[in-house]
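for the recovery benchmark. tokens below, seq after
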């Protein structure tokens, strides 16, 4: 293992893998260290914070203008609740839990507000490389209420230098970054690609990113979009690096869709981060391919 790999004896979960162009961070998607576990486990957040991992949680606004840590607007079946979270106050989600891959509720993964989940981080030692991406989810046609922006700013006060705001919805992500001085901005253009098929052309996608690049330090690209660009001979990831934008390839998990050739392509393309629910397995596969 290199200096960028896990060295702390309390964990065997890697934070990065050494590539030919330097370390590639392995971001713990939904705070997962293994695919079968429930998302947003408090113990994984604390562990990653101490060890220096790249961590990711999803946030969405509730009916009372708070931010809940949830991936989907519908509570069931991924949690023990039911109903549409954007139509519910945060207090009504108390006592709910996220479920693991077998459907079992995990007491280490309660449904919490952003403020509740991150509050313990202020009492924990933080490794310098630790960062937390807040992946903003929005319903079609919706914007964040001002109260939700204020809620985010209050929730991460004092932690801003470790915060990355990422989203398909760049304008709303910019509002959050403006309210959290020191936070970094990431943009995921894949929703725009789904709405504008012409952006599947990597050169056009690059021009789209150039037009929206102000303040953006991370691009979140679906891994197959990167592979497609490389197969066409267009170095999209390198061109983004030339703009000062690092690329995160999402979501890369072991299975039929991920071959050694695909992993080699991502590594050779110079991605700086890989989003995964299975960092141990992806670390092993990259090291062996």
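predicted aa per position
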């Amino acid at each position: 293992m290199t200096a960028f790999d896990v060295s702390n004896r309390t964990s065997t979960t890697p934070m990065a893998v050494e590539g030919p162009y330097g370390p590639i961070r392995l971001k713990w998607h939904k705070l997962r260290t293994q695919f079968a576990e429930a998302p947003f486990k408090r113990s994984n957040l604390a562990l990653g914070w101490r060890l220096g991992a790249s961590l990711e949680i999803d946030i969405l606004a509730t009916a009372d203008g708070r931010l809940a840590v949830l991936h989907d607007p519908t509570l069931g079946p991924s949690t023990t609740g039911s109903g549409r979270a954007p139509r519910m106050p945060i207090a009504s989600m108390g006592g709910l839990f996220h479920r693991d891959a077998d459907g079992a509720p995990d007491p280490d993964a309660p449904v919490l507000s952003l403020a509740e989940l991150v509050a313990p981080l202020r009492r924990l030692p933080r490794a310098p490389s630790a960062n937390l991406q807040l992946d903003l989810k929005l319903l079609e046609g919706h914007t964040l209420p001002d109260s939700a922006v204020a809620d985010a700013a209050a929730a991460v006060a004092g932690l801003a230098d470790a915060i990355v705001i990422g989203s398909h919805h760049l304008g709303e992500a910019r509002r959050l970054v403006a309210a959290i001085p020191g936070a970094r901005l990431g943009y995921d253009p894949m929703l725009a690609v789904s709405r504008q098929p012409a952006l599947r052309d990597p050169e056009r996608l690059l021009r789209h990113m150039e037009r929206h690049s102000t303040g953006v330090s991370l691009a979140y690209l679906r891994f197959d979009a990167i592979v497609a660009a490389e197969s066409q001979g267009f170095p999209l990831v390198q061109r983004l690096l030339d703009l000062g934008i690092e690329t995160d390839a999402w979501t890369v998990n072991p299975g039929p869709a991920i071959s050694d050739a695909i992993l080699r392509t991502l590594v050779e393309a110079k991605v700086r981060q890989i989003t995964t629910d299975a960092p141990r397995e992806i670390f092993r596969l990259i090291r062996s391919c």
